[in-house]
Amino acid sequence: MDISVIIPVYKSETTLAPLVERILSTLRTYRMEIVLVNDGSPDRSEAICTELAERFQQVKFISLRRNFGEFNAVMCGLHYATGRYCVMVDDDFQNPPSEILKLVAEAERGQYDVVYSYYQTKQHSLFRNTGSWVVNQMTTRLLDKPRDLYLSSFKLIRQEVVREMIRYTGPYPYLDGLIFRVTRNVGKVAVEHHKREGGSSYTLRKLISLFLNILFCYSPRPIRLVTNTGFVLILLSILGSLTELATSFLSKHLPETDHLIWLTVIFLGGIQLVGLGLVGEYIGKIFMTQNGLPQFVVKKTILPKEIFS
Length: 309
Description:
The protein is α/β, with parallel strands linked by helices.
């Protein structure tokens, strides 16, 4: 299989069929498949996915038992994808199917493991653009992402990288975090960006959840910031104590009692922060490796017949 197109489906009953038909037409010269993952959508999306999977041999359909979130749905789709290149596409037509060809061409030209898209003109709302900017700033600092790389949801990943990514079984997958755990061989290409024609949209709750996942699941730096703050406070209290003692010695007066109290409080506060940071390192590692929440739960699948032959 050359290309697997993974589409997380949520509230997209009006756009899903035209999107699938357009992708099949655009990629007709490739050996390709479309992997539809219904993420507990409350509308008729599941019924439409079922019809499409029964109608087109190139369409796989996986339905989840409840809404697990976009990243979890994409991870589910990656488990079923067999293409040499896996392309993630939203269900709202903001990324025209014809732009998939640009990602493939860039991957082959530069031999990249991952190719991200970026937009000359973005059609997102101010809220979504602000959220994207914050996420990109966070990932630059926490995941060592290149500053000039925009982390879009429309991207291509080689199958070799996908196989490493799906080894992660935790309940809080963040695709870009998993990508940068595996590779730094990443390219980018400009694509068109259209207005949304339907599908789900980002909410404040989703963005906050994403921020927390990045902070606490994919980097130890927040915990280490607490630890480093503790060390700085200890150092400041020691320097302050030495300064107070030197001043008292030169002036031949006893040190000010209130100064000593404040320095002692700062010193003990620093010790506590260091201790919390060290304990947090262990708890964070244990939490990330031992939690048993499912990443997704499959309710039903419709796969091509040759899968079973």
